[in-house]
Amino acid sequence: MSTPTPLHFWNDFVKLQPLGSLYQTSVWEHFQKQIPGKGKSWMCIVTDPKKNNHILGGGLIILHSLPFNLSWLECPRGPVFDVTHASAFSPSELEYFFQNFLEQVQEIADANRAVFLRMDPPMTTSNISLVEGYNNLTEKLQFKPAHASYFPQTTLTIDLTQTPEEILKQMKSKGRYNIKLAEKHGITIERINTRTNKEAIVQFYNLIEQTAKRDNFFAHNLAYYESMLEALGESATLFMAYNKQKPVAGLIATYFADTTTYYYGASSYSDRPLMAPYLLQWHVMLDARSQGYKTYDLLGIANIDQKTGTPDTSHPLAGVTDFKTKFGGTILSYLPAKELVYMPIWYWIIKMRKRLRG
Fold this sequence. Notes:
single chain; seven-stranded mixed sheet; 2 domains; Aminopeptidase
């Protein structure tokens, strides 16, 4: 049964946790409810009755509709559990948390004919003690490697506590050069107030469409980006790059705790020689730094090749990885997503259907 913990307590908890992210807040839940095919969501929160209902952890659960009145459940970059105290990594505490969390999710699954639960864990591979405990426990609970995931397993972060000069110095020389080139071309950057400037969202969407066709990736419709910017409020901002008055690049950044994330980006191929995306990224980094954010997350790059220690050139994100790595930074790798199956036959059918569709 879901706990009656007030959402503002949960949001505060997530914000204070090293494993916390925007994806586990009520703000993100509000945005997800605007997306067709989703709509239903739950906060499954585990508390300790022996410690005045202290929050041990929990997770936002989002329902995705499937044909035949079926569904599947997603816990985006979750669940989040308290790792700030001495016993956080103990097998007994982890097991207590997961048993209580999964009991709540099981009720949701039963009531909504869920085929499986997917968890994209929020911990990186550098958290050795936590990773070992998590892997052992999820194996014991019969989780499987996920057959797909919405989240990149590897990302690149820039330390914004450095001076601007230090940030530039740690970039690749080509990155610095392209920033200066865009400045020479007179590219201007604007932080858009999307409540009063709806035209800029349309301009961004037109660039997204161009980029999606050029680079062969999926793009949402205009309403999706409008909903995202409206629902997330101060947690998301649109930036646009202009050559005189012509829009040549755009970027949506999200904000949570001490991190600014490059979430969506697009640019005009015909204006590629202007190098506007480089100046746009640099401007957003400086803007975030000026507001006190400590980390700039470039969100997703190709997974690291274990033999070479460098990004895998055959990975679907290899192209954008070349662009992002020019900004320098530190590579972080998350644990891969895992799934708990509730309906084995339907799960097998879903996997086979995806394989046949390529």
